[in-house]
TrEMBL record:
InterPro entries associated with the record: NADH_Q_OxRdtase_chain4, NADH_Q_OxRdtase_chainM/4, NADH_UbQ_OxRdtase, ND/Mrp_TM
PANTHER family according to UniProt: NAD(P)H-QUINONE OXIDOREDUCTASE CHAIN 4, CHLOROPLASTIC, NADH-UBIQUINONE OXIDOREDUCTASE CHAIN 4
Keyword Thylakoid belongs to the record: yes
Reaction catalysed by this enzyme: a plastoquinone + NADH + (n+1) H(+)(in) = a plastoquinol + NAD(+) + n H(+)(out); a plastoquinone + NADPH + (n+1) H(+)(in) = a plastoquinol + NADP(+) + n H(+)(out)
Descriptive protein name: NAD(P)H-quinone oxidoreductase chain 4
Record family assignment: Belongs to the complex I subunit 4 family.
Domain NADH:quinone oxidoreductase/Mrp antiporter transmembrane: 133-414
A biological process term (GO) from this entry: electron transport coupled proton transport
Broad class of the protein's primary localization: membrane
Domain of life: Bacteria
UniProt membrane topology term: Multi-pass membrane protein
Length: 558
C-alpha cells in the first residue's frame, strides 16, 4: 500500500511536465506514437488525481489538505508549497478532465505533432500548478508558465490571423499578471516576517488603504483572465483563431483561473476590501451578462459567437462572488465548473463541424442536420445546457446565483432588483443567440448555390439524392460531411453525461466545496459587519450602496 505521506500533488504536477521532456527522444516518425504517449500520460495523471482525492480528500473540512512544503529559496521565504481545499480540488479535476479530452480531440493533428503534444503536456502541469499552489510566488510562476504553451498553440496551429490573436492574448495576460507579482511582493514584505505562504499572508493585518490597492490590482489581473468587460477583447480573437482542442482549454480551464484567483485571493484573503468592491463586482457581472449576450448575437463566426457567450456566462461568476450569501458563492463555483464542461463540449463540436465544412461562417452553412444527425443531436444538447435548460448543470448554477443575489441581506432592495432584472435580460437573450446559431448551421438553406455540375440530380434542390452545403453540391456517395465518429461521440458524451448528472443531482459537485465556500462567506460577512459598525455613513441605503444589517440578521454572534 502506498504510504499516506506520498507527495500526491507534486506527482500530479510533475508527471506531465517530466513526461513532456521525453517527447523529443521518442522513436516516432508519423506522430502516432507521440499522440498515444501524450494521451496515456494525460489519462494516468487524471487517474492519479481522482485516486488521491477519493482516498485522501475530506470534503467536510474547510482547511488545506494533502499539503506539501519544501523549502526552495529560504532567503526569500520561497517554498514549493502545494495543497488543495474545496475551492481548488474541483477545479483540478475539471482541468484534468478537459485537458485529457482535448488531447483526444487533437487526434488528427499532423503538423509538428511532437511540439504540439509537448506543449499540451506542459500546459497540463502548469494549469494544475496554478490551482494547487499555496505559495504566492509559486502561483505566479505557474500562472506565467501556462502563457507560453497557449501562445505557441494558437500562433502555430491557429487560423489565418493566429499570430495577431496569440500576440494579443500574450500581451493582455502577461501585462495583467504583473499586478499579481506586485501585489504578492507587497503582501510578502509587509510586516515583520517575509513570506509568500498564502495561509500566513491571510493572517496578516493589512491597512485598509493597502488592501484596497491590492484588491484593485488583483481584480485587473484576474479580470483579464476571466474576460471581464472591458478587459475581454483578447478572448473572441483567441477563440476565433485557435484550433478546437486549444479553444476547449481556453474556455474550459483558463477562464476559470480568473474566477479561482478572485475567490482565493480577493474574496478570502482581502475580505475587508471586498466589502467595498462587492457592488462594483456585481455591476461588472451584469454588464458582462448583457454585453456578452448582445455581442454574441451579432457574430457570424460560430466560435466567436461561443466566445462572447462565455463572456456572458462569466458574469454570473462575478455576481455570485459579490452576493454575500452562501448560496451565491456556491453558485459562482458551480457556474465555473458547469461552464467549463459546457463550453468545452461546444467548442469541441464546433471543431467537429469545421473539420467537415472548413468554415466557421454560419451564413455559409445550413441544412447539415440531415447529413450529420449525430453531430446535430450532440450540438443541440450542448446548446440546451448553455441556455440553462432545467435538468442540466447550467440551470442549477445560474439559479443559485439568482437566489443568492435576490436574498442578499446586505444590499438595498433597489440594488438587488436592478441587478436581478438586468441579469434576467441576459438570460432571455441567451436562448435567442444559441437557437439562432442552431437554425443557421443545421436548419438553414445556406448560401446561394454557385456550383455548376452537369448532373440532373442537382437540377432539383429538393431531390433526395442531392446534398447541398453552402456553395458545394455533392451526391451522398461523394459527400465529405460524414457524421460524428465513435471517438467524437465518446468525447462529447463524457462532457454531456457530467452536465446532465450535475443538473439532476447537483450534490455531485457541490459536496466538494460547500463547506469551504460557507467558511469564506462567513469571513466576508464578518468583515462587513465590522465596517458597518465602524463607518455606518458609507453604507447608507441607495441604489449602489449596501445597507446596514444587524449582526443577528447576518447570523454572526458578537
Amino acid at each position: 500500500m502506498i504510504a499516506d505521506g506520498f507527495p500526491w500533488l507534486t506527482a500530479i504536477i510533475l508527471l506531465p511536465l517530466v513526461a513532456s521532456m521525453l517527447i523529443p527522444v521518442l522513436p516516432d516518425k508519423d506522430g502516432k506514437l507521440v499522440r498515444w504517449y501524450a494521451l496515456g500520460v494525460a489519462i494516468a495523471d487524471f487517474t492519479l488525481m481522482c485516486y488521491a482525492f477519493w482516498k485522501h480528500y475530506d470534503a467536510s473540512s474547510a482547511t488545506f489538505q494533502l499539503a506539501e512544503k519544501y523549502t526552495w529559496v529560504p532567503q526569500l521565504g520561497f517554498s514549493w508549497a502545494v495543497s488543495v481545499d474545496g475551492i481548488s480540488a474541483p477545479l483540478v479535476l475539471l482541468a484534468g478532465l478537459v485537458t485529457t479530452l482535448s488531447m483526444f480531440a487533437a487526434w488528427q493533428v499532423n503538423l509538428k505533432p511532437r511540439l504540439f503534444y509537448f506543449l499540451m503536456l506542459l500546459l497540463y502541469g502548469a494549469q494544475i500548478g496554478v490551482f494547487v499552489a499555496q505559495d504566492l510566488l509559486l502561483f505566479f510562476i505557474m500562472w506565467e508558465l501556462e502563457l507560453v504553451p497557449v501562445y505557441l498553440l494558437v500562433s502555430i496551429w491557429g487560423g489565418q490571423k493566429r499570430r495577431y490573436a496569440a500576440t494579443k492574448f500574450l500581451l493582455y495576460t502577461a501585462a495583467a499578471s504583473i499586478f499579481i507579482l506586485v501585489a504578492g511582493l507587497a503582501m510578502a514584505l509587509y510586516g515583520n516576517n517575509t513570506t509568500f505562504d498564502i495561509v500566513e499572508l491571510s493572517a496578516k493585518n493589512y491597512p485598509l488603504a493597502l488592501e484596497l490597492w491590492l484588491y484593485a490590482g488583483l481584480l485587473i489581473a484576474f479580470g483579464v483572465k476571466l474576460a471581464v468587460f472591458p478587459l475581454h477583447t483578447w478572448l473572441p480573437d483567441a477563440h476565433g483563431e485557435a484550433s478546437a482542442p486549444v479553444s476547449m482549454l481556453l474556455a474550459g480551464v483558463l477562464l476559470k483561473m480568473g474566477g479561482y484567483g478572485l475567490i482565493r485571493l480577493n474574496l478570502e484573503m482581502l475580505s475587508d476590501a471586498h466589502v467595498y468592491f462587492a457592488p462594483v463586482l456585481a455591476t461588472l457581472g451584469v454588464i458582462n451578462i448583457i454585453y456578452g449576450a448582445l455581442n454574441s448575437f451579432a457574430q457570424t463566426n460560430m466560435k466567436r459567437r461561443l466566445a462572447y457567450s462565455s463572456i456572458s456566462h462569466m458574469g454570473f461568476v462575478l455576481l455570485g462572488i459579490a452576493s454575500f450569501t452562501d448560496v451565491g458563492v456556491s453558485g459562482a463555483m458551480l457556474q465555473m465548473l458547469s461552464h467549463g464542461l459546457i463550453a468545452a463540449v461546444l467548442f469541441f463540436l464546433a471543431g467537429v463541424t469545421y473539420d467537415r465544412t472548413h468554415t466557421m461562417a454560419m451564413e455559409s452553412m445550413g441544412g447539415i442536420g440531415q447529413i450529420m444527425p449525430k453531430v446535430f443531436a450532440l450540438f443541440t444538447a450542448g446548446a440546451m445546457a448553455s441556455l440553462a435548460l432545467p435538468g442540466m448543470s447550467g440551470f442549477v448554477s445560474e439559479l443559485q446565483v439568482f437566489v443568492g443575489i435576490t436574498t442578499s441581506d446586505i444590499y438595498s432592495p433597489t440594488f438587488c432588483t436592478v441587478m436581478v432584472f438586468l441579469a434576467a435580460v441576459g438570460v432571455i437573450l441567451t436562448p435567442i443567440y444559441l437557437l439562432s446559431m442552431l437554425r443557421q448551421v443545421f436548419y438553414g438553406t445556406g448560401a446561394e448555390l454557385s456550383c455548376d455540375i452537369g448532373n440532373s440530380a442537382f437540377e432539383n434542390q429538393e431531390d433526395e439524392g442531392t446534398v447541398c452545403f453552402g456553395t458545394d453540391c455533392l451526391l451522398p456517395s461523394e459527400a465529405v460531411y460524414r457524421d460524428a465518429q465513435p471517438r467524437e461521440i465518446f468525447i462529447a458524451a463524457c462532457f454531456l453525461v457530467l452536465i446532465i448528472g450535475v443538473g439532476i443531482y447537483p450534490k455531485l459537485a457541490t459536496q466538494m466545496y460547500d463547506v469551504k465556500t460557507v467558511a469564506v462567506n462567513t469571513q466576508v460577512r464578518q468583515s462587513y459587519i465590522q465596517f458597518a459598525e465602524a463607518k455606518p455613513e458609507i453604507y447608507a441605503k441607495g441604489l449602489f450602496a449596501p445597507q446596514i444589517a444587524q449582526p443577528e440578521v447576518l447570523g454572526i454572534i458578537k
